[in-house]
Structures are given as structure tokens and as C-alpha cells.
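Researcher: I'd like a structural prediction for the single chain below. Treat it as a standalone chain; there are no partners to consider.
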Amino acid sequence: MSTAAPAEVARTPRRPGYRAVQRYGLRILGAIGVLWAAATFTFFVQALLPGDRAALILNLETGQNIHRSARELAPINSEYGFSNPIVVQYLHYLGGLVRGDLGTSYQMHQPVTTIIGAQVTPTIVLTVASLLFAWLIALVLTVATTKRVRFVSAIGSGFETITAGLPQYWFGVILLVVLAIDLRIFPVQGGTSAAGLVLPALTLGVPLAGFIGQVTRDEFEKVLDQPFITSARARGMGDLEVRLRHALRHAVLPAITLSGWALGALFSGAVITEAVFARPGLGNVLVTGANTRDIPIVSGIVMLVAFVYVLANLLVDLAYSLVDPRMRTS
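Model: Treating it as a single chain, here is the predicted structure.
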């Protein structure tokens, strides 16, 4: 009596990009979780700060910091929903965020999205310019000095170490005093001109270039010792061509990961740098909102920074796929 072997269960082969799609899906879910956590934090900061929010709004409107009666505060509590249970306020706040509503400014009586939208463009320009400066400085320094004679390599690595530790606020003041006030090469007040963009962009970009350069240099040194680099040299390819066409492409992957964090850091740093160089943008809005305790303005900018961090990290994943095609099918 013979027994038939159990039939092998056929498995449906997964497509090459299945894991990549799964990874991106998890990334998006994680991004939503980060935004939810940031929204929850900003809401409870508003709700639990000392003082009555209705009294704060009324005092801002009248310019008088005095005690308010319950009858005076009742219309404000009703208009803003402060008299509702905290859970109802929280759900209403989350619902507004989903619709793109960041609330209304206590002082300006305008939607926060309108106020931010009117000032965000100079901040975005400064952020992007700073990131470009950082990458340009880091890549030129890495290609020019990595694995050269000891003196040249020491100059490159020393520059990266020093600049990576520079406090941005202090460095910005130094640039302002030396290049704008003493030498008068650049304007003291940035404005929106191209010349006025250079010092703020260098203030943010030079310290970041140190971080990017350190990461890229370590990887660049490892890549230059790989067999495919030796093969490229054996085919008669020049040193600079080998570094630019072969080594650099593999060495920048860790720096791309760092740029995801850096883009968010630059955006938040740009808000402070704008105040130093008297540039238009979200910096003045944030300073005014913090001084007047205009909580919706401050929390709206916090949510925007959180969104930029999340978006930057998602863009990093896409950049990985462009630089390293193996990521598309892994």
C-alpha cells in the first residue's frame, strides 16, 4: 500500500518591489504617528499652560493686563470652545489639523495658516540655500582632500571638526560683524536680495557642512579602497574622474540619510537666524507670537517644523532609490 506524498503548497512569488512598497508604507504610517504625537504635545501645552486662555485673549485685544470677570470671559470661552470638555477640545483640534486648520491668532485675529503662508517663502528659500551651501562645501572638501598627503587630509578633517561644533547663533553674529559691519561686503539687514541671503545661508550651511563632510569622508575612504576603484584606475581613468564618477556616488549615501534630519534642523534654525539678520520670514512671526503668548501662532509653527521633518525623511527614502537602484527592488 503506497501513500501519496503531500502536495507541496505553491507559494505566490512576491514581486521584486514588494518589500520596497512595504517599507514605504511603514514609513508613511510612522510619519503619521510623529505628526499625531506633535499635535498632541502642542495641544496639551496650550491647554495646560498657567493662566486663563480667555483672559489672555481679552487682554491682548484691549492691551490691558487686568483681572477679568466670568461674565467678560464667557463670550470668549464660547467662541473658542474653551468651556467644552478637554477631550472635545482635543478632538476638535485634531479635526482642524486634518482639514488644514491651525486655529486663529489671538492677536491678529487671522487664520494661522494665512499668517504662516504669507511668511513661509523666505524661510523655505533660506533653508534650501543653506542645504545647497552645506553640500557644496562638504563635497568639494571631501573630493579635494580625502586620502591625499597627510597635510592636505588634516586640513580637510580639521575644518570639518571645527565647523561641526560651531554654534549657529554665535557664528552668525561673527559673520555679521566681520563681513557686513567691518568689511561691508554684504548688507547688514538681509532683506530678500541675493546678497542678503549669503550670510544667513552660510550661518546655517557651514556647521552642517562639517557634519556632512565627516560622514562622507569616512565612507569615501572606504570606497577608495574597494576593488572596483582599482579596476577603474587600471582602465586608465584619472584620479579626479574616479572620485567623481565612482567613489562619490557610493560615499554620499550616509550623508543623504543625515540630510533628512538636517533639512528639518535647518528649517527650525532658519526661524532663529532670520531674527539675527532681520530677514522676513517665520522668525519674526515666531518671536512676536512668543512675546505676546499668541499660542496658536507658536504651535502652528511647531506643527509646520514637525511636518518638514517628516517630509524630509520621506524624501530621503526616495533619494536613496535614485542614488542606489538596488533599493527599488529590495
